[in-house]
Amino acid sequence: MLGEQLLMSLKVMVLGLGTVFIALIALIYVIEIINKVLNSRTNVGTKKNKHLATEYDEEKMSIENSTTLNAPDAIDDEEEIVAVIAAAVAASLNYSTHDIIVRSVRRVSPNTPVWNRAGRNQQIAGRL
Question: If you average pLDDT over residues 3-18, what whole number do you get?
Answer without folding.
Answer: 94
